[in-house]
Amino acid sequence: MTNPFRVAAVAAALALSTTVLAVAQDMPAPAAQSAPRAHTGAHRFATAVHSLSLSSDQQARIDQLHQQFKAQQKGIADKNQRRANRKSFHEAVMGVLTPDQRAQLKSMMKQSRASQTQQPNS
Q1: pLDDT band at residue 34 using 50, 70 and 90 as cut-offs
Q2: Mean pLDDT, residues 86-97
Q3: Which residue from 96, 30, 88, 87 is spatially nearest to 58, judged by alpha carbons?
């Protein structure tokens, strides 16, 4: 024989789960999923640097500079100090590049900024 309490508990659980699923389907998607995030200047800089034809020595030096930069930024809340560190990092990276690579990087960053400002913010 079946236990009437067990049958009632299973029926209640089934009814509750059906209600939860129905409510979840009616909920709108979060805004973060509907609009792509804009890339930050740091992301654009890193993408541009990595798109250059770097020698293995240049790549190793830039990786080393980046690790130092990340360690330096860790735990710093002051915006001005973080900005100064970022400027110093960018200058150090530029020092690793050849004059042609620097010109190419500046051009890519300018194009990236221009395309970013043309995109509407969502």
Answers
A1: very low
A2: 92
A3: 96
